[in-house]
Amino acid sequence: MYRLIKKIDLLEVYIKSFLIEASWNFESMQNIGFAHALIPAGRRLYKTREERADFLKRHLKFFNTHPSMAPAIMGVVINLEERHKLGEAGALEQIESVKSSMMGPLAAIGDNVFWEYLRPFTAVIGVSIAILFKDSPNPAIAVWGPVIAFLIYNLINVFVRYRGLMKGYEQGMEIVEVIRGFSLTALIGKLKFSAALVLGITIALIFPALNISFFKNSLYNSLLFLGVTWIFLGMLKIKIYPTVIFYSIIAAAVLFKYIF
Amino acid sequence: MLLEILLVCFLAAIISIDVRTIGGTMLSRPLIVGPLVGLIMGDVGTGFIVAVLVELLWIGLVPIGAYLPVESLPITTVTVALATHLKDTAGNMPQMTLIIFALMVAVPLGYIGRWLETHIRNMNSNMSKKLIKKAGEGRFGFISLAQYSNICVTFLKNFLLCFIPVWFGHDIFSKIANSMPAQVKEGVLYSSWLIPALGFAVVMKIFLVARHVKIFLLSYSLSIAVFFAQKIIR
Fold first, then answer.
1. The domain containing residue A51 runs over which residues?
2. Do B128 and A203 touch (CB under 8 A)?
3. Residue B35: C-alpha distances to residues A121, A176, B47, B98, B170 (Å)
4. Are residues A104 and A143 in the same domain?
5. Count of structural domains within chain A
6. Which of B100, B140, B189 to mutate to test the interface with A (most CBs of A within 10 A)?
7. What is the mean pLDDT of chain B?
8. What is the mean pLDDT of residues A240-260?
9. Which of A29, A30, A32 best probes binding to B when mutated, by most B CB atoms within 10 angstroms?
């Protein structure tokens, strides 16, 4: 550990790993970003042209995973590259199999946790705070909505990336177990539960912020909003796109106004 | 006006680098872009409402595998810019009507952005092939060059995608919006609370599993109860 690679190289890899999707392409996906992130390690390990050419050829092959999970794979690969440079037999063959065997499962975890649940969840929190406090006596609280959403998402995002890279480098393939140890999938259950709570509160109390005043009794206004939301939920469930519903709503409202 | 628009488009383009390159932190989400653009245009309130609407409506679309979602960044930027401009030229319309007019114009930009992105990525495929050929030279510089030129392309794409419609469209847009018949304006106002409802439906589709419907209804009724209890005490 840290026999050739220095901590500063890993930190540089960490920063560059954020750019992994910059040159995303349909053919080899994140290959350029992956190679780019590994450059600091390559520069440290290999000095001759031939070695660097081989290094680039190894890492410009097809690669695709979730961006927050990629640093973990980079860590393992750097570990193996270091061992290869130190003359360990078989390390080179392992690199290819490590990349192809890790990217699938980690992409599944990452897509599921970060994009399907964590991002919508932080958005719900942010949106709820922003909309409920928008017209309150203290509207400055609304600003905390986006700020809190940004912080929750990125505390987890930055943590998982950093730990992934460092532990990946230190522990090699065991990193998959380490990431399982973060119990990210257990997080999804908690996110769903809290989202249900927050959605209940927001949908119940949103009608003053939206100026819904069809009925004198505000209970009916609140129930009206809930009912309409449920109807749209049904439409979304039968796979009508939000954009289609968006334009249909406006068209229907204008038409309604013309008729009545 | 020109300065504001340039500033807004510059900001959007800078933030757009986050969308694909920094791997999507929350920074490029409408929730954050909306208020920032609103701040520059001098109307944070409009920024917030647009942020909430756009954030909710397209939250369910995520870039998994090779799928490209609708780009919410140009939608947010252009909506806020147009809505605040329209407010200055047509002060008699309610805020929500302005926003929804602007949103109707801006939504196709999200699809144009996605279409452009497809082309950029096809170009990247050629670049990837060239880089693999060049790898034999063993120079790391080419890779960095490819990365940074791609960041510039993303910047330019989003700058133009926001600037062209706002700069060339804002006068035509406010003329059209102002000459709309009264029925259209009122109809649009009717739809103004239905669109947030659609937004919440999108989120509920993600989160509300059958197991949690009870919790949702419980927190809904508790909130309502507290709301009325507060009213009675007052």
1. 1-182
2. no
3. 19, 39, 4, 16, 20
4. yes
5. 2
6. B140
7. 89
8. 91
9. A32
